[in-house]
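Hi U.,

Before I forget, here's the chain from the pilot set. I'm dumping it here mostly so it's searchable later in email.
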Amino acid sequence: MLSVSLFLAFILAGPWQSKTFAADTSCKYSVVAEQTSLEWKAFKFTEKTGVGGKFTKVSISGTKPGDSVTHALKGLKFSLEPIDLDSGNAERDPKIKGAFFGNLKANGKISGSLSSVSLDADQKSGKGVIQLTLNGVTKALPLQFTLENGNILNVKGSLDLNHWKAGAALKALNDICKDLHTSKDGKSVLWPDVEITIKSELKKDCK
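Structure:
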């Protein structure tokens, strides 16, 4: 079970690529960590039932105010710590932090960087890529963006933990939660798939 994130050092895959979100050049946009959240959904049981949670803190660096949302996102780096994970279940949290994150490199820290973002023709949706570092492995993770009211950003993505060599940690978590992950078919299953949702309301200062 992961958030992800996660979210979330962000290592750039290549040159920054962007098609600018619709800009009001009289305004400046800024990314604010306190206005940014990352939620995750993992899956248990043979029938793949979702179990959600979040990270209560997202650390952000590398950005500076820009005249568009895209420019404000340029250079963004983020990190997440297992201690800030909240699954909504006080008994489950220490199991995730200990059995899963405790079996990952770098004490389970997640980090990443936004390497590209582009806006579709509708000016309200687009695509992006982050370089996600987890368990000592850095891989590209595609994302889908939507933009509301000009400064409210919603980002979605999905990952397979096996691509970050986290299968052993996932098994360790499933072993201690075996009964809780057992379906009517008698099989105990914790899927490697994780969905992440990032929300950020960018600060908008206009003249």
